[in-house]
Design goal:
Elements lengths: L2 H7 L1 H13 L4 E3 L7 H16 L2 H10 L10 H17 L30 E3 L4 E3 L7 H7 L3 H6 L3 H19 L13 H18 L36 E3 L1
Parallel strand pairs: 1-4
Antiparallel strand pairs: 2-3
The structure holds copper (II) ion.
Copper (II) ion binds next to loops.
């Protein structure tokens, strides 16, 4: 008897196997957008369109438009870590194999708008609005100059210094992409928003695990440590393994 046939014959055991995915969710491998295969690209776009059609994306866009003190301060990275996770989980409702790609604009090869998203300009319906995604990316040289501070950020030995440089790069890249991305009340409607934020989240993870970062956490206390409107707290965001993803 093979293991497979044994599992099939034992319905009680089969139930356990089915539950394993729930008990031990597979780790999502977030990849550099530049190395995605054609299939991986189209599956990301497909999953994005599915959660746009079912209204989940619109709800996330509206949450981002609300005031949660999630920008220009030490909450930027932990708040958006949760935000990305909720987006990725929503994608998994349709495509369990799709993970948020990251746009590594620190690499000269990627200092331009990701071509495969050029023609992906969705219309997103939020509970309150309709957003037609537009953009107007700047020049490669402009992007290179915006991100030139990244190595300095990575060399910082305290979270505040690291985070404030990253915050500046974050906003400047939003404006460099232009259009929808340059307005925080609508920016997550652009599929590239998630690739941009995944890269910020990745840089934070790299820094955190580096000698300089030395596993320092954001200095957040009290209500600042609550990632509202969710119940996640800053300590919940410290390890990406608790959110079932990794960067490759
Ligand atoms: Cu944001």
């Amino acid at each position: 008897m093979t293991f497979a046939s044994m599992v099939k014959e034992n319905s009680k055991f089969l139930q356990v196997v089915k539950d394993l995915r729930w008990l031990f969710p597979p780790v999502c491998q977030r990849k550099d957008q530049a190395v995605l295969t054609e299939t991986e690209r189209s599956r990301y776009v497909c999953a994005f369109n599915m959660i746009n059609n079912d209204g989940t994306l619109g709800q996330l866009v509206d949450v981002h438009a609300e005031m949660h003190m999630q920008h220009t301060n030490a909450r930027l990275l932990p708040w958006h870590r949760v935000f990305l996770y909720l987006f990725e989980e929503a994608l998994h409702n349709y495509h369990p194999d799709v993970c948020v790609p990251y746009w590594d604009w620190t690499r000269p090869e990627e200092q331009h708008f990701p071509d495969w998203l050029n023609s992906v300009l969705p219309t997103v319906h939020t509970p309150t609005r309709t957003i037609n995604v537009i953009r107007a990316p700047g020049s490669g040289g402009g992007l290179a100059s915006i991100v030139s501070g990244a190595p300095t950020a990575m060399s910082k030995t305290n979270y505040g210094d690291f985070s404030s440089i990253v915050n500046g790069i974050h906003g400047s890249v939003h404006i460099w992409v232009g259009g929808t991305m340059s307005d925080a009340s609508v920016s997550p409607a652009d599929p590239v928003f998630w690739l941009h934020h995944a890269n910020l989240d990745r840089l934070w993870w790299v820094w955190y695990n580096s000698a300089q970062g030395n596993h320092q956490n954001p200095p957040l206390t009290g209500s600042d440590a609550l990632m509202d409107p969710w119940t996640y707290t800053e300590p919940d965001t410290r390890s990406i393994s608790s959110f079932h993803y990794t960067y490759v």
